[in-house]
């Protein structure tokens, strides 16, 4: 049994994907070919935003967002400590200081109550300028955007949605990728919507941000690519990856339904044995992961393994426990809920062909 069965998905979509790749080989526009534009327009429609701008990967999507918001040295950017490293990494990469926040034990997402405490602490200390929040749609469930948007407004902070795992999720019919000032996603093969290499996208309703992102992703271009008006980067999505994503996006609603059916079956069979993930009323998860909590994690994982069922720990190390952030001087016990999650979570196989 596969943890994420990309081979089963490919067998199902093989003719369509092969034909799409062949079309790119025939027209030969490997960089910024017509499939890139077609995909961007379909992504914007699906998410329900004005602009979808593709880029090289989900990490660059976050970096480009922070560049657009002018996040720099001396700024504090708040993010969950229980997340994938890239969320916090990009903050530090831009020279700013990541300020970590504890999680909600039921949804795994950033806790708005702890967030407000951490914002107030940074203000009271007076050393850093509170600038932005990066919320993560962890394991596919959108973060608590109604509460986060209120806090962003109250403290005049920008809000970024890291929807690398959240693409396909919803709150009251509003799709992941449409929350906050800017949202990002990743098309890494194992994400809910993945390509066959690296890929990413940025979503926004703000025209000015969209223009800046389109410039930053191609060497800070102005009128054309040999007119460079700012320092940017090279972060484009390959045309072949866009072609693959067009076929995968067409199938995505069916796969999303199947993932949700699988999650329901897990819930029905496992709720009396483990703490199962909870989805608040009005929320839809894309189930990037189906994550259980157990005090006897090792034994549970071992038992699944003996039955041929792979399990994986996402994530066993919080950001404040990472060597790369040791200089921030966080202590064990600073984030009791996230630390407990890191010691008790494990994920079961999840994909649209389970
Ligand atoms: C995967 C992931 C990223 C980074 O995406 P890449 O495409 O691998 O660069 C960022 N944030 C989260 C939460 C992720 O899961």
List descriptors:
354 residues; alpha/beta; binds pyridoxal-5'-phosphate; 12 strands; Aspartate Aminotransferase, domain 1; 2 domains; Aspartate Aminotransferase, domain 2; 40% helix; 10 helices
Percent of residues in beta strands = 5-15%
Number of domains: 2
* Bound heterogens, unique: pyridoxal-5'-phosphate
The CATH topology assignment of the largest domain is: Aspartate Aminotransferase, domain 2
Looking across the biggest beta sheet, what order are the strands in? 1-9-8-5-4-2-3
| Helical/strand content category | alpha/beta
Report the major sheet.
7 strands, mixed
**Low-pLDDT segments, ≥5 res:** none
Pattern of helices and strands: HHEHEHEHEHEEEEEHHEEHHE
Number of helices: 10
CATH class of the largest domain: Alpha Beta
CATH architecture field of the largest domain:
3-Layer(aba) Sandwich
CATH superfamily of the largest domain: Type I PLP-dependent aspartate aminotransferase-like (Major domain)
Written overview of the protein:
This protein has 354 residues and is of the alpha/beta class. The protein has two domains: 6-101 and 109-248, 3-Layer(aba) Sandwich (Aspartate Aminotransferase, domain 2), CATH 3.40.640.10; 253-348, Alpha-Beta Complex (Aspartate Aminotransferase, domain 1), CATH 3.90.1150.10. The protein has helices at 6-27, 34-47, 58-68, 85-93, 112-125, 145-154, 207-216, 239-270, 297-306, 336-344; strands at 51-55, 75-80, 97-101, 129-136, 158-162, 170-171, 174-175, 182-186, 200-204, 283-284, 290-293, 345-348. The strands form three sheets. It has a seven-stranded mixed sheet, sandwiched between helices. It has a three-stranded antiparallel sheet with strand order 7-6-10, with no helix packed on it. The protein has a two-stranded antiparallel ribbon with strand order 11-12. Helix 3 packs across helix 7 (207-216). The protein starts with 5 loop residues before the first helix and ends in a 6-residue tail after the last strand. The mean pLDDT is 98. Bound molecules: pyridoxal-5'-phosphate (PLP). Pyridoxal-5'-phosphate is lined by residues 57-59, 83-84, 86-87, 136, 162, 164-165, 186, 188, 198, 200.
